[in-house]
Amino acid sequence: MIGALLLSVAALTYALSKLEPAAPSVVRSTVFPDTVKRGELVRQVRGIGVLAPESIVFISARDEGRIEKRLLQPGQEVTPDTILLEMSSPTLEQLFFDAESQLRGAEADYANLQAQLESQRLDQESTTADMRGLYLQAKAQFDADLEQSKFGLISDVELTKSRVAAEQLKTRLDLEGERLKVREPSVQAQLAAQQSRIEQFRSLVQLRQEQLDRRKVRAGIQGVLQQVEVEVGQLVTPGTVLARVSDPKRLKAELRVPETQMKDVLIGQIAEIDTRNGIIPGRVMRIDPAATQGTVTVDVRLEGELPRGARPDLSVDGRIELERLQDVLYVGRPIYAQENSMIGLFKVQPDGIHALRTQVSVGRTSVNAIEIRGGLEEGDEVILSDMSNWEEFDRIRLD
To answer: Looking at residue 366, what is its pLDDT?
Structure first.
C-alpha cells in the first residue's frame, strides 16, 4: 500500500509538471480585435497642423514717422482703401512745404523770364524799326542824289558817299532782321529750360504729397487683417513691418509630419484635410527642407470648397496618400508596429476563447493599417491593443 501510494504521488507530480500554466484572463471588451484581409491597401501618412493663408501681404513703413492711431483690430475685414494706422512725421511736412516753396519760386522765375524776354523782343523790334527808318531815309537821299548827278548838280564823291551810307544801313537792317529771327528759338529754349525746372519741382511736390498721404497706412488688398505689429507712440523707420493682411478665401494646410515618415512624401501627392467640419481634398505643394523638433512641415494646397468656419490658424488633421498596394494581406495597425519589422500579435484561436502570441512579419505601413508578409493568413483574427501587461505570457483567455 505504501509503495502504491508513493507511485501514485510520483505519477501525479509528473502529470502536473507536464501541464501548461493557466492562461491569464483578459476582458474581451477591453481589447480591440481585427481580421486579416486581402485587397487594396492605401498607404498614408498623417500629420496635424493648421490652416494658413496661402499668401500674406506684409505692409511696411516707407517713411520715418510715429504711430498716432490704430484704427482696426486683427480679424476685421479690410478693403484696399481701408486705413489701418495713422502716422505723423514733422520731417515730411517740412519737406512738403520746402518743395512747395521751390515750386512757387520756379514759377515766379518763369514769369519773370517771360517778361524779360518779351521786353528784349520789343527792344529788338524797336531797333529794327529804327534801322529800317534810317535805311529808307538814306535810300531816299541816294535816289535824290542819283537824279541830281545826272544833271551835274552833285559831284561823284557826294554820290558815292550817299550810296555807301544807304548800303551800310541796308546791311545793318538785314543783320537786325536776322537777329530778330534767330532770337525766337533762343527764347523758346530758355522758356523750356525754366519750364522743365518747374516740372521738376512739381514732381517733387507730388512726391512729398504722396509721402504725406502715406501717413495713413492702407490695407492695399481685399482680405482680413492678420496682425498689427506696432503700437501707438512707436517710432518706425523705413522697412519696419506695420501689419499683415491675408486673403481668407485662399488658405492652405500646414501639416507637421513625423520626420521618420517623410521618406516617401513627394510634391504633388493627393491629400485629405479634416477640418472637423468637413474634409477638403488637396495636393502637396511644398515640403520644408529642414526638420523642426522631429517633424517636417508640409504645405497642402486646398482644392475643394472651404467649409463654413474655415479660417487661418484653425487646427486640422491631414492625411497624405503615398501609394496604393494591390492584392496584399493587411490588418489594422498596432500602435507599436514599425515598417519592415517583426512584431508579436495575439491570434485568436478557432475556439474563440484563447489567443496565442504569434510572430508576424510586417512590410509597409500606413496610418491605420500594416502589410502582412508572414505569420498570418487571410481571415485570421488578431488583437491590436497594447498587450504589454501580458508580455510574459504567450497565451491568454478572452472572457
So the answer is: 87
- Do 320 and 354 contact (CB within 8 A), yes or no? no
Q: Name the nearest CA neighbour of 396 among 361, 331, 349.
A: 349
Nearest to 36 by CA among 398, 371, 397, 386: 371
pLDDT score of 255: 93
Q: CA-to-CA distance for 275 and 300, rounded, in angstroms?
A: 13
Residues 265 and 160 in one domain: no
Q: Which domain holds residue 162?
A: 91-212
| Whole-prediction pTM | 0.58
CATH number of 222's domain: 2.40.50.100
* CA triple 323-327-330, angle to 5 deg: 80
Quote the pLDDT of residue 192. Answer: 87
Residues 172, 259 share a domain: no
Alpha helices in 255-364 (DSSP H): none
Answer whether residue 355 is part of any domain. yes
DSSP letter string over 277-289? S-EEEEEEEEEEE
d(CA 7, CA 232): 101
C-alpha 19: how far from its chain's center? 73
Instruction: Assess contact for 56 and 246: CB atoms under 8 A.
Output: yes
* Domain of residue 304, CATH code: 2.40.30.170
6 grid coordinates: 508513493
CA atoms of 381 and 143, how far apart (whole Å) = 142
Nearest to 162 by CA among 136, 134, 142: 142
pLDDT number for residue 16: 45
Q: Look at residue 338 in the predicted model and tell me its pLDDT.
A: 85
Element (H, E) at 189: helix 156-213
The stretches in the chain having pLDDT less than 70 are 9-22
Going by their DSSP bridges, the two strands 216-218 and 37-53 should be labelled as: unpaired
Per-residue confidence (pLDDT) for residue 19, from 0 to 100: 44
For residue 137, the one-letter residue type is Q
Q: Please report the pLDDT score of residue 320 as a whole number.
A: 93
pLDDT (tens digit per residue) in 364-397: 888 889 899 999 899 999 988 888 888 888 888 8
Contact between residue 165 and residue 142 where contact means Cβ atoms under 8 Å apart: yes
